[in-house]
Amino acid sequence: MSRFFAANYEYESGSSSSEEDLLSSASDEMLSSSDEEGGESDDSLFQEGSESESDVESDDSDSKPYGPDWFKKPEFRKGGPSGGNKFLKGASYSDSEESDDEGKKVVKSAKEKLLDEMQMVYNKIESASMINDWVTILSEFDNICRLLIRAQQQNYGTPNIFIKVLAQVEDTVASTSQQELKGKSASRAYNTTKQRVKKSARENETVLSKFRESPESFDKEPTVEVDATTVTTSGGETPTPIFGSKKSLNLSSVASASSEAGFFSALRIVIDSRGKKNVDQVALIKTLEELMDIAKTPYETIMAYLNLVPIRFDLSANLSYQPVDQWKSSYNDIVKLVTILEQNIDTYQLSELAPTNDFIEDQPEADGNGVRQILGSIFSFVERLDHEFNKSLLNTDPHSSDYLYRLRDEQDIYNLILRTQLYLEATLPEDSKEAYLARPFVKRLDHIYYKPIKLISIMESNAWKELPSNCSSQFISYPGNADQEYVTKLVHTLAESLRQNKSGGLRKRAVLYQVYFTAFNNEFSAAKEMLINSKVQSHINNSDPSLQILFNRVVVQLGLAAFKLCLIEDCHQILNELLSSSHLREILGQQTLQRITANVGTSSADEREQLCLPFHQHINLDLIDLVFMTCSLLIEVPQMTAFYSGIKVKRVPYSQKSIRRALEHYDKSSFQGPPESLRDHVLHAAKCMQKGNWQKSVEFLRSVPTWSLLPNADYVLDNLTEKVQIESLKTYFFTYKRFYSNISIQQFSKLFSLPEEKVLNVLESVMKEYAINAKLNDEKTFVVVEKGEEITKLEEVALKLNKEVKIAKERLNPTGPRR
C-alpha cells in the first residue's frame, strides 16, 4: 500500500520496500564521498539544493512532515537539528543550537530566559537605587518575587541572582533614611519595600548569610544548592515542600514536627497556599487540625484557629450556603477559640486594635499589664457564621421539617453572639467600646426585635445559662431571670447605644428595631410617636434596600398594632399608602431567593440576599389584607351610602385593595357565587352591611380563619362586632331616611342590638358631621327628618340609567355621529 494513504504509518527495521533501498543506497554514496574529502563539510551541497526549494524550515523535528520530502525518514529531511546535514556529518547538535544560512542561532531554555529576566531586574534596581527612585525599586522587587515563585514552581530552586537582589535592596534600605525621601509616594514605597525585604530576608536568612560571607562564589553557580522541591525554613532546620512543585505535598509530615520551627513552617505553608489554584482545601483543614494537636502554647493554638476558621468558610465559598455539617464544624472551632481566649485573657487577647505582626513565629510584645495583643477579629467569624445560617434558611423549603430543624441552631448562634459581646467588653479600651460593640448589638437585635416578649425571655435565659455565673455586662446586667421588664429594658438599652454611633445606617436601624418591637407588643401610641420624632421617613428613600424593607415592615406592624387596639381609622390611614403597591411581597422582603435571582440576575449574591428575609420573620400577607379590607369595610361602606344618597361627603382616596373597588367589580359581574376566599368573605360582609343586616355581616367576618394569627383575636372580634353594629346603623340611616319622616330610636336599638344611649350618640354625631336636615324631638325618642334637596330613590335609579345609556352610545359609536 502506498504511504500516501497511510496516515499513521510507522517505519519498521525489517522493511524491504524499494524506496527504503533507494534511500539507504543514496546514504552510502554520500557517506563515502564525505570520507574521501577528508571529513570536510558537505553542507554546501544541501544548501545549494535548498535555495531552489522552500525557505521554510521546521524547528520541531517531531512535527508532521510536509512538502516534497514528506516521504523521507526524519534523518533525511532538510532543516532542523535532525536534518540531513546532521546525519551525514555525524555531528552532535545540542538542543539549544541550530544551523542557519548566516551562522549559528542560539535558542535559550526557559531557565536561562528566567535568569535573564532576573538579571534585568537586578540592573533596573541598581539604577533606581542611585537616584532613590523607590517606586521603581518596589515595582521591580515585586517583579522578581513573582519570578522566584515561577522558578520554584518549575523546580529551578532559588536562583542566586534573587539572593543578590535581596541583599542589594536590603543594603539600599539600610543606607537610606526617612528624611532623604521627597514626596508621599516615595515615602510610602520605601516603607512598603522595607517591610517586604525584611520578610524575604527572614525567609532566606541562611542563604543570605552565606552570600554575604563570599559574594564571589555566588556568581559561579546559577542557583542555590538546595533540592528543587524543598526550601529551607528561617531556622535552617526543616526543609518544607513548595506549593506548585510536581512532587506531591506532604503536609502531614511537616505538621508532625515537634519543634516550634516545624509548627510555624507548616502554618506558613498553609497561609501562603490559601487562595491559590489547585490547592486542596480539605488537606489544608486536615493539616491545621493536626497542627492543633501538636500545639504546645496557647499562642500556637490561637494562630491555628485563626487560620482554620477562614479556610472552612472558603471551602463553601462557591456554594449557595455552607452545608450544615461544615457549619457545625465552624461553630465548634469558634467556640473553642473563644474558650481559649477566655481562659488566657490575662496573657493573650484578640483585638482589632492590635499592631500588625510581620512574622507569625514571633509573639507580640507584652504591654504594661503583661497582655499580648494578637491582631484579629473574633466577631467577624461570628458574623460570617450568622450570615451562613441565614443563607441556609433562605435556601431551605420553609414548609419542610428541615427548616424547623435548622431553626433550632438559632439559639446556639445567639449564645455565641452574647458570649463574644462580653469578651469584647472585657478586652476593649473604654474609649473604643461603644464603637466596636455596635456590631454585636445589631446582631442581638436582629434575632429578637421581631419576636414576642415570652420568646425573647426564653432565648435570653438559655443564653445566660451557658455562661459562667461570674459573667456580667456593663451595659445591662442580667438579674437572674429574663422577665418582661428586663426584655423591654434590653431592647431599649441596645437601641439607645446604637443611636450614639456615628454611622447613620446603624442609627436608623436601631430606631426601626425599637419601633417594631414597641408596636409588636401593642404599644401603638409610643411606637407612633417614636417613629415621628426620629424623622426616619424623610430620608428612607436614600437608604440601602435592606433598611427600606425594614421601614416597610415597621409601617405594617404599626398598622397591625393600631388594629389590635381597634383604632380603625389610624390603621386604615397607615396601611392605605403601603397597600396601594401591587408588589407587597417584594417591598416587605418576603419573596423567595430563587425568585429574586430570576428577576435580578446581574446583581451579586449579597445584594440579592438583602432583598429577602427568612420565612420565620415574615408577616402574614393574608392577615395584612384581612385587616386592611376590614378597616376599609367599616370606613368606606357608610361613606359610599351617604354619597349615593345625595349627602355631600369628603371622598377618601382608595387603593387597589379597598372594599370600594371590590364592590364596584362585584356589581358589574353577572354571577355572584358563595364566598370562597378571604376577600370574598369581606365582600359579602360589605353587601350585608349595605342592607343593614349586621348579624350576617359579622358572621362572614368571623368565619375567616386568619383571625387566629392575632394574639388577642377574641378581644379584637368582640370590638369588631360592635364596630359593625355602629357602621351598619349609619348605613341604614343614610339609605332609608328619605322614606321616613320620623324614625324611632327604640326601633333602631332593637334592630341593631345597641343601647338607646349609644344610638342617640351615633345619630347626633352623624347629623352634625354631614349636616343632615334632621333633628331629635324633645323627648329624644324620634328622629324627625326634614325633606331637603336630596334625590329620591327613583331619581337615583334614573341617573344611573342615564349614565349607562351614555356609556353604551359611546361604545357603539366611538367616532361620533355621521353627517
UniProtKB/TrEMBL annotation:
- PROSITE patterns per the record? PCI
> Which Pfam families does its entry note?
eIF-3c_N, PCI
Q: Supply the source organism's classification.
A: Eukaryota, Fungi, Dikarya, Ascomycota, Saccharomycotina
- Tell me if Cytoplasm is a UniProt keyword of this record: yes
Q: Which domain of life is it from?
A: Eukaryota
Quaternary assembly: Component of the eukaryotic translation initiation factor 3 (eIF-3) complex.
Protein name (Swiss-Prot/TrEMBL): Eukaryotic translation initiation factor 3 subunit C
Q: Which GO terms describe its cellular component?
A: cytoplasmic stress granule; eukaryotic 43S preinitiation complex; eukaryotic 48S preinitiation complex; eukaryotic translation initiation factor 3 complex, eIF3e; eukaryotic translation initiation factor 3 complex, eIF3m; multi-eIF complex
